[in-house]
Amino acid sequence: EVQFVESGGGSVQPGGSLRLSCSASGFPRKTWLIGWFRQAPGKEREGVSVIGYDGSTYYSDSVKGRFTISRDNAKNTVYLQMDSLKPEDTAVYFCVIDNVVGSSWYHARLYDYWGQGAQVTVSS
To answer: pLDDT confidence of 74, banded at 50, 70, 90?
Structure first.
């Protein structure tokens, strides 16, 4: 059974920063992508960023240059540093992990394992 421990999120003004963290245990495969999707009210889930077991990173165009994904192997934890936040970044952010090919990383349906989500609100 895959278990997630997520933290971070909250409310911030436009231009501010937040950091999400996620630790996933119990994933049975040796190759994986782990990272975040988000879902705003009335919208479909959208891939934000993931990092692979080999250190490869993927970002959506909407966050590239503002968000940075990283991992601490010693702590088995992944981080999403979100800078220059915009109101359109407001959403519930879900940590995900699965054995997904990098070129398909943004397809939500390919991930079977999802965390409980964390609210991120960007508003003045």
So the answer is: confident
